[in-house]
């Protein structure tokens, strides 16, 4: 039986950086490839609140505000997130619900206002109030909401020795936002992604990755 494995970061990378339509396509492709339902396998290989989070991301439906800024909803969401981490035991339910049911523009306004009110980065709030795989999942979800190319650049930098991770990101983003990932990688490392691939990989894999990367930066 083919298993999903236990690489939570790889799982979260895929789930958090795909649109609802792409996630639906992945769900269909998974069933066609393995004859099983992705949702059921996620349930069997994750636990407790982390299961709720990954399923909510998998089935996320972004609220359509038709380009309008809903200030009332922003205030409501900020209050929900803030109130959920008051007291001895934090409640992850509002965090999961809000972060998986709003579009990124709305959520960035919510997260920015939450940071202003609490006087700390959202990432620090999550680290201080949640633990285990749930904390990892919320941190990655927030990072991809705030700046997906930057998150992917960080992932490439830390996983450059992992061929499957690098290949997966390069292929998945080659027709979307790889240019912005390259820009963020250069900011992060002071090295271009192109030259880093030249240094870290050899032969056919190097040529394939360079073709996806397309050109030098800087």
From TrEMBL:
Native source organism of the sequence: Ameiurus melas
Keywords recorded for this protein, A-Z: Annexin, Calcium, Calcium/phospholipid-binding, Repeat
Membrane-spanning intervals of the chain: none
Family: Belongs to the annexin family.
PROSITE patterns attached to this UniProt entry: ANNEXIN_1, ANNEXIN_2
Keyword Calcium: yes
Origin: domain of life: Eukaryota
Pfam families noted in UniProt: Annexin (PF00191)
UniProt keyword annotation of Secreted present: no
Protein name: Annexin
UniProt GO cellular component terms: cytoplasm; nucleus; plasma membrane; vesicle membrane
GO molecular function list: calcium ion binding; calcium-dependent phospholipid binding; phosphatidylserine binding
Record's comment describing the protein's domains: A pair of annexin repeats may form one binding site for calcium and phospholipid.
């Amino acid at each position: 039986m083919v298993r999903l494995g236990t690489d939570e970061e790889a799982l979260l990378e895929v789930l958090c950086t795909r649109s609802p339509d792409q996630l639906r396509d992945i769900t269909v492709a998974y069933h066609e490839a393995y004859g099983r339902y992705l949702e059921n396998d996620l349930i069997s290989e994750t636990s407790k609140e982390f299961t709720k989070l990954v399923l909510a991301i998998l089935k996320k439906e972004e609220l359509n505000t038709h380009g309008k800024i809903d200030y009332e909803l922003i205030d409501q969401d900020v209050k929900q997130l803030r109130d959920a981490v008051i007291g001895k035991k934090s409640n992850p339910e509002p965090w999961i619900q809000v972060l998986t049911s709003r579009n990124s523009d709305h959520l960035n306004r919510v997260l920015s206002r939450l940071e202003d009110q609490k006087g700390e980065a959202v990432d620090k709030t999550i680290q201080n109030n949640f633990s285990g795989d749930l904390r990892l999942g919320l941190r990655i979800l927030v990072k991809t909401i705030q700046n997906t190319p930057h998150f992917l650049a960080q992932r490439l930098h830390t996983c450059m020795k992992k061929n499957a991770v690098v290949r997966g990101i390069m292929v998945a983003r080659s027709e979307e936002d790889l240019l912005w990932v390259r820009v963020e990688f250069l900011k992060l490392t002071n090295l271009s992604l192109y030259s880093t691939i030249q240094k870290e990989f050899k032969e056919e894999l190097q040529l394939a990755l360079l073709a996806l990367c397309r050109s030098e930066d800087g």
